[in-house]
Amino acid sequence: MEIFYFPHFQTSSSLAHIALYTKVTNAATLRKRIINAATAQGPLGDGEREAVNFSFINARLITSRLHLQTAINQAILAQSQNSLRTRTVHSEILWALNSTNNISEAIRRYGISEASTDLIVVRISGPEASTTAIRESISRVVIGVETTLTMLSQLTDWASVRKYHKLDTEPMIFNDTEVANNIVVSTVAMKSVIA
User: Fold this and answer.
1) Which subcellular locations apply to this protein (predicted)?
2) Which of 184, 188, 151 is nearest to 73 (CA)?
């Protein structure tokens, strides 16, 4: 697990705990659990929402650590300015990653699907949150192999990234992942300004 620190935000949202999981075997069950938690009522619903209070990201569409950090930064910024376009800071990360403003599309593309095998799990918190406790919370909901973010470059599905960001028709970009990554990161960084 890695921690990104954002000192320029409120203390309560200054940390992002990030875990990369490969070989995930319970994506379909986890997706159903997230959907059910969103509509559950009462104390049971509150408990279930807390249990899955993470951003579950399709790791195959993340081009770099900077791509991920930029989306997290944009989501925390939106939360700090009371301008979330989604219900939570965790779903806002998915919205920030998507190249369009369509929230449903962002969740469908960048969120967990029934076929997901590689996931990035993010929890936004303050320094009072224990890394150990967050790791344990994640391990209670995700069945897979935790690995380091250095593995990210081996997981990226560049064909899908180019398709979703409409870079697949540009021959100069098509074979250059560094240029494609720079464009994708810039898109995420500018999205809140353009939206």
Assistant:
1) Nucleus
2) 188
- Taking only Cα atoms into account, the Rg of the chain, rounded to an integer number of angstroms, comes to 16
Encoded tokens for 116: 């997901």
DSSP 59: G
Q: How far apart are CA 41 and CA 77, in angstroms?
A: 29
Q: Is the predicted pLDDT of residue 162 greater than 80, yes or no?
A: yes
Q: Are 93 and 55 in contact (CB under 8 A)?
A: yes
Give residue-wise pLDDT tens across range 79-104: 999 999 999 999 999 999 999 999 99
CB neighbours (10 Å) of residue 93? Answer: 30
Residue 127's SS3 state is coil
Q: Which residue shows structure tokens 């970009």? A: 173
Q: What is the pTM of this model?
A: 0.93
**Residue 68: enclosing H or E segment and its boundaries?**
helix 65-80
Residue type, 19: A
CB 19 within 8 A of CB 146: yes
> In this predicted structure, what is the pLDDT of residue 172?
67
Residues in the chain: 195
All domains of the chain, ordered by start, with CATH?
2-194 (3.30.2380.10)
Give the torsion sign (CA, 171, 178, 152, 110): negative
Is the predicted pLDDT of residue 174 greater than 70, yes or no?
A: no
